[in-house]
């Protein structure tokens, strides 16, 4: 297939730059502890300095893969599929979510919300970043807000973001992994003083699974 043809299919969401896919236990947020199939899409220009999957940033490093094939593989393992990145909303998610819905999958997304919301979602985990704030529609539709706490100034950012989401959105504070020993006590104190928030931990890292 010619490069131009591939680029057109990627633009239409009929192919996607697939970084990795795996069946595991959801480690974070509301659905932690439950089995799910993860699809990690390459490509992200948000550029968080503490990102633990920086290898996902450059979409060109990840082969454009036929979306139908990705879907067929996912539903062999689980009826719950989590699409993550990178930043999955860099790409049009209509095709992949439509095909997953045809297979009766429950579809979750983990997103910074920096780009237009496309696709059909059963659960939207919004993890906003200061560098590139979410689109208004993502705030309105988010099921959970997960703010990563790297330093004490991030609590102010968390409150600013919480003021923008819908009233039913569940609020989480999650320590950035590399500074967790220093940050966890601050989060515990903050949640005890502000009980609208919950603590999210990267439990998959404690379990030593993907």
Description:
With 210 residues, this protein is an alpha/beta fold. The chain has a single domain, classed as Aldolase class I (TIM Barrel). The chain is built from seven helices and nine strands; from the N terminus they run αβββαβαββαβαβαβα. It has helices at residues 3-11, 67-74, 94-102, 136-141, 154-162, 180-193, 203-207, and strands at 15-25, 35-41, 64-66, 80-84, 106-111, 123-126, 144-149, 170-175, 197-199. The longest helix is centred in the C-terminal third of the chain and has 14 residues, at 180-193. The radius of gyration is 17 Å and the shape is globular. It catalyses: 6-carboxy-5,6,7,8-tetrahydropterin + H(+) = 7-carboxy-7-carbaguanine + NH4(+). Keywords: 4Fe-4S, Iron, Iron-sulfur, Lyase, Magnesium, Metal-binding, Queuosine biosynthesis, S-adenosyl-L-methionine.
If you average the pLDDT, what whole number results? 96
Order of adjacent strands in the largest pleated sheet: 3-1-2-4-5-6-7-8-9
CATH homologous superfamily placement:
Aldolase class I
Distance between the termini: 33 Å
Q: Care to count the β-strands?
A: 9
Number of helices: 7
User: How many domains would you count in the coordinates?
Assistant: 1
Oligomer: single chain
Approximately how much helix is present in the residues? 25-40%
CATH architecture annotation name: Alpha-Beta Barrel
Question: Class in CATH?
Answer: Alpha Beta
Organism: Mesonia maritima
Family: Belongs to the radical SAM superfamily. 7-carboxy-7-deazaguanine synthase family.
EC number: 4.3.99.3
Pfam families: Radical_SAM
């Amino acid at each position: 297939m010619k490069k131009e043809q591939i680029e057109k299919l990627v633009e239409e969401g009929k192919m996607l730059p697939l970084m990795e896919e795996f069946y595991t236990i959801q480690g974070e947020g509301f659905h932690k502890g439950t089995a799910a199939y993860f699809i990690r899409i390459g490509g992200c220009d948000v550029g968080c300095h503490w990102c633990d999957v920086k290898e996902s940033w450059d979409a060109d490093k990840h082969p454009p893969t036929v979306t139908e094939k990705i879907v067929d593989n996912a539903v062999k393992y689980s009826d719950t599929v989590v699409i993550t990145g990178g930043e999955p909303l860099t790409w049009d998610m209509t095709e992949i979510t439509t095909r997953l819905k045809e297979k009766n999958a429950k579809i979750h997304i983990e997103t910074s919300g920096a780009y237009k919301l496309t696709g059909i979602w059963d659960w939207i985990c919004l993890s906003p970043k200061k560098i590139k704030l979410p689109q208004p529609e993502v705030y309105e539709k988010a099921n959970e807000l997960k703010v990563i706490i790297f330093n004490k100034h991030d609590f102010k950012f968390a409150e600013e973001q919480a003021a923008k989401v819908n009233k039913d959105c569940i609020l989480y504070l999650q320590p950035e992994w590399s500074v967790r020993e220093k940050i966890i006590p601050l989060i515990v104190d903050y949640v005890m003083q502000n009980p609208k928030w919950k603590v999210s931990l990267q439990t998959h890292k404690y379990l030593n699974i993907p």
